[in-house]
């Protein structure tokens, strides 16, 4: 098995992250997921902003070459996972789980309340993967307005609303310390 390390991304790796994103997108296309328009990766400007002010982590192999990444932004006390990708040749080997665990650790250290994302409901390796690590489908009435807006923006860009879903993983409240005896 390939040795994988999780670390902060470097700006000189943004081109490699774009290549990983496009490679992973091919897996969605191969699974029959309709992608509207010409596929694009996160811009270097966006990766730079997330790297400097939010959370951009890389999974790298034994030679320190990026093989996956996760980009998360703080929105209303939660990390919104804007993107998570692993090269197709290493998908299904636990790298995505490690990236989620790492971003969860960062979120908890910052006092955030959970993680949120939008994903494809019917892609075999998306929705069920997130369920398996503790995400739940955000239900009407409990979905934050900002996350509803993300879904609406995706629909405007051509993504089919019946195929998209918002998911959240809320952290349990931190214990407040031992109870004091009277």
From TrEMBL:
UniProtKB keywords: Acyltransferase, Transferase
Keyword Amino-acid biosynthesis: no
PANTHER family in the record: PEPTIDYL-LYSINE N-ACETYLTRANSFERASE YJAB
Protein name stated in the entry: GNAT family N-acetyltransferase
GO terms, molecular function: acyltransferase activity, transferring groups other than amino-acyl groups
Domain of life of the native organism: Bacteria
Entry keyword annotation includes Nucleotide-binding: no
Pfam families membership: Acetyltransf_1
Domain N-acetyltransferase: 4-152
């Amino acid at each position: 098995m390939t040795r994988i390390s999780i670390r902060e991304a470097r700006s000189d790796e943004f081109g490699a992250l774009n290549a990983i994103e496009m490679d992973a997108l091919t897996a969605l296309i191969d699974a029959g997921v309709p992608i509207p328009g010409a596929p694009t990766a996160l811009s270097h400007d966006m990766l730079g902003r997330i790297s400097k002010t939010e959370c951009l982590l890389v999974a790298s192999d034994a030679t320190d070459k990026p093989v996956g990444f996760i980009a998360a932004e703080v929105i209303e006390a939660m990390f919104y996972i804007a993107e998570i990708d692993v090269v197709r040749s290493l998908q299904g080997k636990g790298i995505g789980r490690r990236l989620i665990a790492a971003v969860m650790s960062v979120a908890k250290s910052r006092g955030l309340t959970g993680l949120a994302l939008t994903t494809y409901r019917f892609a075999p390796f998306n929705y069920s993967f997130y369920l398996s690590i503790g995400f739940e489908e955000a239900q009407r009435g409990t979905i934050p307005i900002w996350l509803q807006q993300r879904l609406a923006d995706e629909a405007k860009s051509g993504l089919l609303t019946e195929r998209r879903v918002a998911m959240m993983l809320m952290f349990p409240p931190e214990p407040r310390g031992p109870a004091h005896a009277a």
